Amino acid sequence: MAAGNDHKVIVITGAGAGIGRETARRLLGDGHSVVLAGRRRKTLEETADGSPGAVVVETDVTSAESVRALFGAVRERFGRVDVLFNNAGVFGPAASVDEIGDSAWREVLDTNVTGSLNCAREAAAMMKAQAPQGGRIINNGSISAHVPRPSSVAYTVSKHAISGLTASMNLDLRGYGIACTQIDVGNAATAMTAGFGQARQADGSVRAEPSIDAAHVADMIAHIVSLPLDVSVPTVTVMAREMPFAGRG
Q: Is residue 109 part of a domain?
């Protein structure tokens, strides 16, 4: 376990797969206590893989009651929370503004935006009560928070909302020792991005895109977690060097 002030209590949502799983395992390997939150206990337990530093809490981030129960469990177990990685998210169907259905729109916005707000609200309340100790909140944004993919209206809108959430949090919480980051990821290899092996481009063509190992995203998050709280990283982008980002619009 990390020694002294280096040891942190970290909550990760969407910890059952992808970037959440990779980050959880990296931070557990660094000796932190990591609370793994997600809808399916089985996948969370697979992430934990028997680590003594892991705590599994089934959570539906779209439910404010479920999120309150998550942070209640964290408070009861540890008495504090040092880091929240707001990672849970869905991509939703490929659809433009005239094609997106009601239920698909609600699912993406409820998970990516309301879910992030629910978790940030509970974490911020605990961290404010810990002042001057404070804490750190990392929101998982996306390259789509800057430049959209074709037919991704719900996801793109949700990630622009994460930019607003992170900016508002940085303004409102900085006086309480709370630092907030938006990490924008481009083409990290996960089940969620598997379809980008043949991705539709802005010019209408379909072609393969390069990707990076999700471990590199976990490395970046681990670095941010290691920083003292007087250091703020408002935004950071981790992406495959040759992915079409600058010319995507």
A: yes
Residue 248 placed within a domain: no
Question: Looking at residues 133-141, what average pLDDT do you find?
Answer: 96
158 in a domain, yes or no?
yes
pLDDT, average across residues 209-221: 90
**Stated pTM of the model:** 0.92
Q: What CATH number did the domain enclosing 174 receive? A: 3.40.50.720
Residue 102 has pLDDT above 50, yes or no: yes
Number of domains into which the chain is organized: 1
Q: Is 149 exposed, middle or buried (0-12, 13-18, 19+ CB in 10 A)?
A: buried
Q: How confident is the model at residue 150 (pLDDT cuts 50, 70, 90)?
A: confident
Do residues 53 and 28 make contact, with C-beta atoms less than 8 angstroms apart?
A: yes
How many whole angstroms separate alpha carbon 132 and alpha carbon 45?
34
Residues marked as catalytic:
155
pLDDT of amino acid 199: 73
Whether 197 shows a pLDDT value over 70: the answer reads no
Contact yes or no for 80/126 (Cβ under 8 A): yes
